[in-house]
Design goal:
It contains 17 helices and 13 strands. The protein has helices at about 10-20, 75-90, 95-115, 125-135, 155-160, 165-180, 190-200, 225-230, 250-255, 275-285, 300-305, 320-325, 330-335, 350-355, 370-380, 385-400, 405-420, and strands at about 30-35, 40-45, 50-55, 120-125, 145-150, 185, 205-210, 235-245, 265-270, 290-295, 310-315, 340-345, 365. Helix 7 links the parallel strand 6 and strand 7 (about 205-210).
Length: about 425
Amino acid sequence: MFVANNMVSDRRVIREAATVAAAGFAVTVHAIAQRREALPLREEHPDGFTIVRHRLGLTPPVLQIRPRLFALLIHPFWCALAITVAVARKIRLPLAGAALLAIRWTSWATLAARAANSAQILHAHDLSGALPALATLRTNLTATLLYDSHEVFLESGRWAKSPAFIRRALATRFEQPALRRAAALIAVNPQVIEELAKRYEIPERQVVTYNCPPAWNPEPRGTELRAAIGVDAAAQVVLYHGGFSAHRGLEELLEAKRDPRLANAHLVFLGYGPLEATLRAAAADPAYGGRVHVLKAVAPEVLDRWVSGADVGMCTVLPSTLNHRISTPNKLFESIGAGVPVVGSDFATMRDILLGDPDAPLGAVCDPTNPHDVATAIDSILSMSPSDRAALRARCIRAAAARWNWEAQAARLTELYQSLPRTHVA
């Protein structure tokens, strides 16, 4: 597997690697070693796979003209390019940042590809992970490639704002070749597959693995969240957990809290990020009557217990990018799995899950840009009778046990791997 991060908190890749290892495959995840991080370059993960981290820096890849005599010879092209970009960045020339990132990625991809040269299955996580996979295929012609799309990559982050010619070059030179060469396309939801199919020629075989947590029993409910904010079991608690960053609907949620219908509800933000100061200022604002709380993020292994103490889970991401509009965030499934009904954005992806459940709705949807609509959706759950709210909680638990758990997703991934040719089983 190839993934362009340090493999510390990428729950999707960790779960997928553990799933494949449990199926009997020898799994190595090639990740990134950042210069300022004190992480081991090689690590045996407790879930049965190996992590190998390669340096991501300005060090150009070694050109091995002759394995013994010239193993340390550095190609002058990379030296010249690195110096040019460094100077351009210093004087703030346009595109210097993108060019610098391209150099660093190319260096990492080269090192990762060499280390994985004998692998029989190459599992590329997103376009960044496809770079070393494609490089490996140049010499390892019989390897099987799998392309795992965590989102529509070129519509994410800095790439969504990059000039059209850069995005077009990445699409035609890397993403389309990777998808054309892949034996299967794995994605976080069907909508990502549909979007990629509009843009590219994609593999006939497609597998959806939602980012669901492992199945667990959330009864009895956790008491940690309510204890942390000093309220009892009778209080109404609305929870947002995750990153405190733009486009997550946090400002709109604060505005919705001002609605008289939510006057008695406690609004909790659990996490961290650049908007933390804004949230803490709101928590100190007398207008909220001490019913807005900001808590530090908790460890992943105890998160589910904290979430289970809420009455409503918030997942009102804004429609600011294509990826947001077709997203199925982790917190959506974490809340359902904890027995907490969700208020989500009225996008097709979340609407299908929250309102299309065969049992009955698992929450409500709203226009995330409209605080009044957000408040109405929250109130539609909080104003239910105790028996109806208990029934809704039980429905979420049943849906998580039947569908929205990692074990259900893992079965599809395992089936894919076991059907591949030329695999090596440990």
